[in-house]
Amino acid sequence: MSYDSVVMADLQEQLAEIHEEVVSQVLEDLKNGDRKARAEAMQLLKQNNVTAVAQEGSTLKKLAGKLDFSQMEDKVVPLKREAG
Question: N vs C: which end of the chain shows fewer Cβ within 10 Å?
C-alpha cells in the first residue's frame, strides 16, 4: 500500500467522522427545538439525496391523492431537455 493511498484512506475516515458528528449535532439541535436546525437538517438531507415518499395507505398518501392541481395546468411550463 502506498503512502498516498494510506493518506487518502485516513482522509476518508476523517471526513466520514466529521459527517457523522455534524449529522449527530444537527439531530440533537433539532430534537431540542432549535429552529435553525430545521434548515440545516433539510440541507443535509438534500445534500445526501435523502427523500421521503408517503407509504401506501398512509394518511399522507391519501391526502396527497386528494390534492387538485388542475387549476395550475396553464401555469406549468414544460422543460425542454437538451440533446446530448
Answer: C
pLDDT above 90 (res 17) = yes
pLDDT of 8 higher than 90: no
Q: What is the 3-state secondary structure (H, E, C) of the chain?
A: CCHHHHHHHHHHHHHHHHHHHHHHHHHHHHHCCCHHHHHHHHHHHHHCCCCCCCCCCCHHHHHHHHCCCHHHHHHCCCCCCCCC
Q: Are 54 and 64 in contact (CB under 8 A)?
A: yes
- State the Cα–Cα distance between residues 11 and 16, nearest whole angstrom: 9
User: What pTM value is reported for the model?
Assistant: 0.53
Q: Which residues contact 45 (CB under 8 A, 6 or more apart)?
A: 51
